[in-house]
Here is the input.
Amino acid sequence: MTDYDVLRVFCGPDGGYGNELGVVRDGSVLPERSDRQTLAAKLGFSETVFVDDPERGVIDIYTPTLRLPFAGHPCVGTAWLLDVPELVTPAGAVGARLDGEFSWIEARAEWAPPRTLRRYGTPAEVDALDVPPPGEWVYAWAWQDEAAGRIRARAFPGRNDGIDEDEATGAAALLLTDRLGRALNITQGKGSQILTAPQPHGWVEIGGRVFLEP
Here is the structure.
């Protein structure tokens, strides 16, 4: 079996929750895309990362069913694991930094896969949502405290790969931050936390806590 690490990315203040991520530190053991896709499907994480050059931060990202040019929670988690100043993805170079308990990346909204950002009136409405049938990728959100930039969100990938709801999704948070044009403190899923901040020239920072599973 191929060796891999399991991280939880965008954990809550107490270290709980977060979205699981698989990271194969030595991507050379599976150089073929088809083999990587097979392993990602077998592991069943929302994303699995293959590290092709740990010093330069070159990575390759897969869901259980497809390869992604960029994704938020895999980049935040892998940047923390490798402790590098940037990651190189097919979409572009992703800036990375560690700041206390948070791991941050800097990326562009146009790198994120398409998402339907669906606003609701109250957090209770978001909490009450049932998983929609497969189809569009929906990021459901509502203001918890608009003045403070606090948001309640849930994410429904709409795929037929066994992942009905993502516990924490950086790319969707990036898109929402770009649309709203302000820093956000997002509580997603059962209790994950995502921090974001727009930067000059169309860049957005996304940050969160990362823990390595024993």
Notes: The two ends are 18 Å apart (CA to CA). DSSP finds four helices and 14 strands in the chain. The longest helix spans residues 33-43. The first strand starts at residue 5 and ends at 11.
